[in-house]
Write a sequence for this structure.
């Protein structure tokens, strides 16, 4: 038996006897494992570990973090779906890669969108199309004209849906964009600053380059405008009815009982909106925590699937 | 025919199996983009087939394989696979000492103090360090 | 531009006893875990990061930098002593280090590795501290097309290591490239060759492949060959003279150009993210071997081989900080972990970093220099300890090494699946070895494969499928010409040496 675990269990028990202890109804039966669908060192990993630490602190539960990388969360969710729905195993992923896999090869996956109980979203990645600050275009329409006049402009992307948006624009406006695959948002920024790309997608890393005056925004890819740049209209407002909203979210295997679900959702909400998480999310994503709660999260996953399928159809020749 | 030539022949066969059967069935087809998922694997496998075919006819080297070493190596691999399977089922701390002891005995270690050190102390200190100091789980 | 008082204040922050102790602790931990086959600095940093949550930024980052730098030296130790490199970086160290151990001179080999590593590391740290900004601007001009050309150049240089059989070298290369394509493809993110295993979505875990084919295969082979009396893992003659145990200054100084070339290659590769320290180590080793008057002495215990490899792979670590600090772009797995530690500590890499956090960054630079000093001192005294430890019976050394590989891969890949993959690659490595296919060439191809495919796709898109557009990329053309020259030159030299053998 682990000494620190014993200590934490005692501490938790002690807390329970205190009047007004927050989680009197439900206690996890043993340590909670928070599985991260990405490798160590990325933003999901950093967020997950911080949430686990914050949950341990506020609830006294033992929260263990495990990395299960593979396919943008698919590997992790594939094994999570087989775990017991007793609230001791949770998974953290990102909506868009999960939805993309469900939309394009759902029949090969061992889970569906409704195979999980959804608990919380952590943050919405501020996805946007950006360009070098000295580029002679400021909107998507101007960029389309520029591309037509210059034999096709190069756009950096690091995830499939970004490519689908621009292919859909290509299809409707005949812009002739060429899409260059990149491994990360930081590499896209490198390409923009180095002059190899004419535009590219950023998911947060671009924001400080707006402040430094190296980059500018052409459009936001989310459905509504983003707080740090309220004057930048979305693709939808600019007449291209496409959006991509990558939420970081937390799910558990389907079939949690209501008390467990409520207790977990409450614990997660406290962790996500804690002062330390707010600061961390500001550091990593340049934005603020955004927890939609269990129902909101489920809606994002279920509606998101039809949005992605529609985008897929719009981008195909 | 030498072992080398048989192996080279098998590599050619492997290449053809990949090109005509495995790549088409295990790699999705995509209609757009400058390169598609199968571009690099296809190039690699055609290069493999051509080069291995050249080697099949030109290579004159003869490798001799020490059968006893081969069998012993296979036995150690089997031991490890079995041990990892059992670790997954029963836990690292119960299986690792037996694994270490069997390896040590198999290569002829008979001194009890070294057996105790390598077979009990070392595996259990690894387990203590990982599970109880660092708080990570080992199966 | 950061003003001078900020620089001084930053350095002043660094040189405190607390920071020194954290850096020292990091270096000791790093050297120790680096020397454990299967465990390594990357996994250790991943485990250590949550523990640094509670520390102040400078001691936290100083500790992690210490682990990283200590690991650079620790990694050479098992490669030299028992021929089981835990990372491909050290694979080239084993080529000349292990023969020296067999000749009873493990201490000499380890000391050469230590001196070369610290030399390369200090060189690239000085480059980072003094000319990071202009270097970052040059590195920005290295776009995907140039990276692709640089990769072709690296492959052509490394082809000099293929050895006697060209066909075997090419077969090992394409097998490495093929296995690197398993998992999501870089252009369309479709799963490839995964045969229904979702664990393979991100490809074969790098740790499993490297540790399996380089270290575990060697351990299996050694175990299989042992029978009868159990001997110490390494036998060091008792009556050694000082020059068999130590590296004299003359010997070190004789390697000055080798060290400088290694440090320059490593710094250049580190400043341009995407290639990594393995490529740098092998490029340095290959060019040192090819330009030597006596290339046949390499692989038999030549100190220049160790100097070339260790100076190059260590100097990548310092230069990695250039894209890391200016763009938030990691050049390696350990750099990626450092970025996440930076973010947790509220340090945002990017264009505003030097302006907003200049003092902290110069504090970090101070900590890096401290770490180099600690690395040298700890290494100097620690190596004797390793030489003592390794004289334990081989039964203990190899069974412990095997268990550590299992545990290390289990932890870094997050489950048993990675361990099975490691065992599969151990078997694969043994077959390659038995049939005389070069395992290191396979490993380099596997490591460079994903980036090679990504930049191939990027290049094809940027050139819009038309080779004539290459005229807009003069640097890439230069690199392609250098590659062609390299292959010609290597072929020519090979032909010449064959003729001279026939003449004998």
């Amino acid at each position: 038996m682990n000494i620190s675990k014993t200590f934490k269990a005692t501490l938790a028990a002690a807390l329970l006897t205190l009047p007004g202890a927050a989680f009197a109804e439900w206690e996890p039966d043993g340590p909670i494992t928070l599985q991260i669908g990405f490798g160590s060192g990325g933003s999901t990993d950093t967020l997950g570990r911080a949430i686990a630490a914050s949950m341990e602190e506020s609830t006294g539960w033992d929260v263990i973090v495990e990395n299960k990388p593979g396919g943008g969360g698919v590997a992790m969710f594939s094994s999570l779906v087989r775990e017991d729905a007793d609230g001791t195993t949770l998974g953290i992923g990102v909506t868009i890669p999960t939805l993309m896999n469900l939309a394009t090869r759902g029949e090969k996956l061992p889970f569906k969108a409704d195979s999980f109980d959804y608990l919380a979203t952590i943050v919405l990645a501020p996805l946007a199309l950006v360009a070098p600050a000295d580029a002679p275009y400021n909107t998507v329409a101007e960029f389309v004209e520029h591309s037509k006049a210059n034999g096709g402009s190069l756009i950096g992307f690091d995830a499939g849906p970004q490519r689908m948006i621009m292919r859909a624009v290509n299809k409707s406006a005949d812009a002739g964009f060429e899409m260059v695959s990149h491994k990360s948002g930081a590499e896209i920024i490198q390409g923009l600053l180095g002059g190899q790309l004419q535009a590219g997608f950023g998911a947060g890393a671009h924001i400080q380059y707006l402040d430094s005056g190296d980059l500018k925004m052409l459009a936001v890819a989310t459905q509504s405008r983003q707080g740090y740049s309220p004057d930048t209209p979305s693709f939808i407002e600019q007449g291209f009815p496409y959006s991509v909203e990558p939420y970081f979210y937390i799910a558990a295997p389907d079939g949690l009982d209501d008390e467990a679900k409520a207790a977990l959702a409450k614990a997660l909400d406290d962790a996500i909106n804690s002062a330390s998480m707010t600061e961390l999310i500001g550091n990593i994503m340049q934005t603020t925590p955004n927890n939609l709660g269990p129902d909101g999260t489920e809606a994002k996953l279920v509606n998101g699937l039809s949005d992605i399928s529609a985008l897929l159809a719009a981008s195909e020749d | 025919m030498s072992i080398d030539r048989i192996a080279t022949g098998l590599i050619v066969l492997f290449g053809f199996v990949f090109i005509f059967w495995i790549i088409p069935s295990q790699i999705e087809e995509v209609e757009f983009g400058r390169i598609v998922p199968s571009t690099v694997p296809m190039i690699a496998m055609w290069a493999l087939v051509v080069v291995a075919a050249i080697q099949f006819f030109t290579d004159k080297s003869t490798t001799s394989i020490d059968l006893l070493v081969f069998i012993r190596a296979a036995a150690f691999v089997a031991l490890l696979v079995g041990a990892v399977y059992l670790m997954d089922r029963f836990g690292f701390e119960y299986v690792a000492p037996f694994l270490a002891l069997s390896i040590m005995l198999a290569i002829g270690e008979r001194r009890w103090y070294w057996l105790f050190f390598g077979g009990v102390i070392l595996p259990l200190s690894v387990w203590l360090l990982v599970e109880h100091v660092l708080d990570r789980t080992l199966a | 531009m950061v003003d001078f008082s900020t620089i001084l204040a930053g350095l002043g922050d660094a040189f405190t006893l607390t920071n020194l102790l954290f850096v020292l602790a990091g270096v000791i931990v790093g050297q120790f875990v680096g020397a454990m086959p299967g465990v390594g600095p990357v996994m250790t940093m991943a485990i250590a990061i949550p523990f640094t949550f509670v520390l102040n930024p400078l001691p936290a980052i100083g500790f992690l930098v210490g682990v990283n730098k200590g690991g650079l030296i620790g990694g050479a130790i098992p490669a030299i002593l028992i021929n089981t490199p835990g990372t491909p970086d050290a694979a080239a160290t084993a080529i000349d280090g292990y023969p020296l151990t067999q000749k009873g001179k493990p201490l000499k080999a380890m000391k050469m590795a230590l001196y070369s590593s610290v030399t390369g590391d200090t060189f690239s740290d000085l480059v980072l501290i003094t000319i990071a900004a202009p270097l970052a601007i040059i590195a920005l001009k290295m776009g995907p097309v140039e990276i692709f050309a640089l990769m072709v150049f690296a492959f052509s240089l490394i082809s000099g290591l293929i050895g006697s059989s060209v066909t075997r070298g090419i077969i090992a290369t394409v097998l490495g490239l093929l296995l690197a394509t398993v998992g999501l493809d870089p252009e369309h993110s479709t799963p490839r060759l995964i045969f229904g295993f979702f664990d393979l979505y991100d490809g074969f875990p790098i740790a499993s492949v490297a540790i399996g084919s380089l270290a575990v295969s060697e351990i299996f082979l050694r175990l299989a060959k042992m029978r009868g009396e159990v001997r110490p893992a390494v036998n060091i003659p008792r009556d050694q003279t000082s020059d068999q145990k130590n590296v004299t200054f003359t010997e070190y100084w004789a390697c000055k150009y080798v060290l400088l070339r290694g440090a320059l290659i490593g710094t250049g590769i580190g400043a341009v993210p995407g290639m990594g320290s393995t490529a740098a180590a092998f490029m340095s080793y290959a060019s040192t071997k090819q330009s030597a008057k006596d290339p046949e002495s390499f692989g038999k215990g030549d100190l220049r081989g160790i100097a070339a490899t260790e100076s190059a792979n260590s100097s990548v670590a310092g230069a990695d900080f250039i894209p890391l600090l200016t763009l938030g772009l990691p050049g390696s797995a350990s750099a990626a972990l450092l970025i996440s530690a930076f973010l947790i500590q509220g340090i945002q890499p990017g264009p505003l970093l030097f302006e907003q956090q200049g003092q902290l960054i110069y504090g970090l630079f101070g900590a890096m220099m401290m770490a180099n000093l600690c690395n040298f001192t700890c290494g100097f005294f620690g190596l004797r300890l390793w030489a003592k430890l390794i004289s334990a019976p081989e039964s203990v050394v190899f069974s412990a090494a095997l268990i550590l590989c299992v545990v290390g891969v289990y932890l870094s890949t997050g489950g048993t699946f990675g361990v099975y993959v490691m065992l599969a690659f151990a078997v694969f490595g043994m077959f390659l070895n038995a049939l005389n296919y070069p395992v290191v060439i396979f490993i380099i191809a596997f490591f460079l494969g994903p980036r090679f495919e990504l930049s191939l796709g990027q290049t094809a898109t940027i050139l819009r499928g038309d080779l004539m557009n290459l005229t807009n990329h003069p640097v890439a053309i230069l690199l392609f010409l250098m590659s062609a020259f390299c292959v010609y030159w290597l072929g020519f030299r090979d032909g010449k040496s064959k003729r001279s053998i026939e003449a004998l």
Remarks:
- The CA atoms of residues 26 and 121 of chain B lie 46 Å apart.
- Chain B has a mean pLDDT of 91.
- The radius of gyration of chain B is 23 Å.
- Chain B has two domains: 3-58, 67-133.
